[in-house]
Specification:
4 helices; five-stranded mixed β-sheet; two-stranded antiparallel ribbon; alpha+beta
């Protein structure tokens, strides 16, 4: 039920200038619309953001369990919460040398990632990273990493991921966010990664 309340208001105004003084008044009405007075007794609704955060934690826990129990994924894939959402990182994804083409051994891994992603309706952000080399430029690294991320995104689309995740964005970060030491092969492998984020809805 709506309530209608009239509240009178009164105020005094003054205005000074070098040549004149003005004193005046205002009378007005304040109109207030609201629910019934006992509506304040209702328990506050649980914030939706809290539900979404709890759901994200469940996604992380479930994905970690699946990764740890799968020999194709354990040690090759990791998952974590980021500012953007839930990020699944393909830490040891392999492409043909100096190419955007995946090696055949990567497809079974991506098939399993696709199954995980299709459970959710979040938008997806696929981000490519690469290792820094002596003769590369930042611009070339960004383009190279974007094309590798695009290869992964296209394969996931072929596996039906876009049927549930309606929007997919592809970005290349180049070598700007290294996770390993570019002076070692193990570090460079960590830097040659592709990350897939289930974008936060709230």
């Amino acid at each position: 039920m709506l309530e209608f309340e009239l509240t009178p208001t009164f105020g005094i105004e003054t205005f000074n200038s070098p040549n004149s003084i003005y004193v005046g008044g205002r009378v007005g009405m304040l109109f207030v619309f609201g629910g019934s007075k006992d509506s304040g007794n209702k328990a506050p609704a649980k914030p939706k953001a809290a539900d979404d955060r709890a759901e994200e934690n469940k996604i992380v826990e479930q994905t970690i369990k699946e990764i740890e129990s799968d020999p194709d994924l354990k040690g090759a894939v990791s998952v974590r919460l980021t500012d953007e959402g839930v990020t699944i990182s393909l830490d040891t994804i392999n492409f043909k040398p100096d190419s955007f083409d995946l090696v055949d051994s990567e497809f079974p891994k991506l098939d399993k990632i696709a199954v995980m992603l299709k459970r959710y309706t979040n938008d997806l952000h696929v981000v490519g990273h690469c290792a820094k080399t002596a003769d590369s430029t930042p611009e070339a690294d960004v383009e190279f990493s974007r094309k590798r991320a695009e290869t992964v995104a296209n394969y996931l689309i072929l596996q039906g991921v876009r049927r549930t995740n309606t929007k997919m964005t592809v970005t290349g970060k180049g070598s700007s966010e290294p996770r390993g030491d570019n002076n070692t092969e193990a570090g460079r492998q960590l830097n040659r990664r592709v990350e897939i984020t289930l974008v936060r809805k709230y």
